[in-house]
Amino acid sequence: MTASVSTVDTSSFGQILGTIVLGLLLLFVFIALVRSVRIVPQATALVIERLGRYSRTLEPGLHLLIPFVDRVRAQVDVREQVVSFPPQPVITSDNLVVSIDTVLYSQVTDPKSAVYEIANYITGIEQLTVTTLRNVIGSMDLEQTLTSRDQINGQLRGVLDEATGRWGIRVNRVELKSIDPPQSIQGSMEQQMRAERDRRAAILTAEGVKQSQILTAEGDKQGAILRAEGSAQAAILTAEGEARAILQVFDAVHRGDPDPKLLAYQYLQMLPKLAASPANKVWVIPSELTGALSQFTNGFGSAMSGDGGASDGASVRPAGVSPVSDLPPTSLVDPAIALAEARRMSEAATADATSAGTLSGHPLNPDAEAGQRPYTPPEV
C-alpha cells in the first residue's frame, strides 16, 4: 500500500517537472526569437556588437541577429539635429563682455565614429563651439561683432566641421541667435543712434530749406522778368496809343484847316487852366499869344465892320453846306504803319527846319498859312 502511494507521487512530480522544463524551453525559444529579429525604423541606425566587439551597422529594415551573441550597442538618429546652446560670455578686443547665443545644425554621417570616437558628441560640439567663438570674437571689437555675423558664422562652421569630421558628424550651419552687449553699452548705443538720426533729420531739414529758398528765388526771378516784360509791353502799347492819338489830332487839325482866330481862341481857353492852381505865382505866357490875340481882334473887327467874309482871302462857305463836307477823307491806317510814317515825317520836318534856321507854320505843312490846300498825309 505504501509502495503504491510512493510510485504515484513520484510520477506526479515527474510530470510537473517536465511541464516546467517544457515551459522554460518554450520561453527560451521565444526570447531567442525576439532577440534574433530586429526591425530598424527609417532615419535610424543600429550599431551591433558581437561578443563585445563592433560587428556591423544595421540600416533601416528587417534584420536577424544571433541571440545572446549579437547585441545592440547604440541606436543613432541620422537626421539633422538642431542644438541651441545657452548664452556664453565672450570678451571682445576692446575689453567688453558680450553674451552670445548659438544655434548649431549638425548631422551624423558615420554612426560607428559617433559612438566609438567620442563619448558624447553633443557636449563635445558645445565646448568646441564656445572655445572657437571666443577665439573669433576676441579678435573683433564690439562694432565689428555686431555687424559681422556672416563672417563669424563662416569661421565657426569651418573650424567645427574640420574638428567634428573624425567624429562622424557634419556641421551644416552655425547661427548666432543673439548678441547682447552690457546694459551701459546699450544705453550709449541708443544715444549714439538717436544723435545720428537727429543729425540726419537736421540735414534733411536744411536740404528742404535750401531747395525751398532756391525755388522761391527762381520764382521771384521769373516773376520780375515777367513783370518787366509786361511793363515794357505796356509802355510800348501806351506809346503806340499816344502816337495814334497824336496822329488823329494832327490829321483832324489839317483836315479842318484852322486859322489864327481858332488858335487864339484855344489860347484863351488854356489861360484859366494855367491860373487854376493856387501854387502858381508866376504865369508863363507864350510869346505867340500877342500875335494870336491881334489876329483874334482883327477877325472880330472885320466881322463887326460888315465885311461878311473871312480875312486873309479865305473863301466864304455857302449857306447850308456842312463844315466838314468839303474835307478830304481821313487818312488813318494801321497804328503801327501810321506811327512809323509819322516818325519819318517828323524827322524829315525837323531836318528841314534845322537847315532853314526857322520854323514857319506847322512843321509838317509849312504852306498851310499861305492859302494853299490842306495837307493830306500820303496813303499807305
From TrEMBL:
The keyword Phosphoprotein does not apply. The chain crosses the membrane at residues 12-34. PROSITE patterns: BAND_7. Residues 35-193 form the Band domain. InterPro entries: Band7/mec-2_domain, Band_7, Band_7/SPFH_dom_sf, Band_7/stomatin-like_CS, Stomatin_HflK_fam. GO terms for cellular component: plasma membrane; side of membrane. It comes from the Bacteria. This is SPFH/Band 7/PHB domain protein.
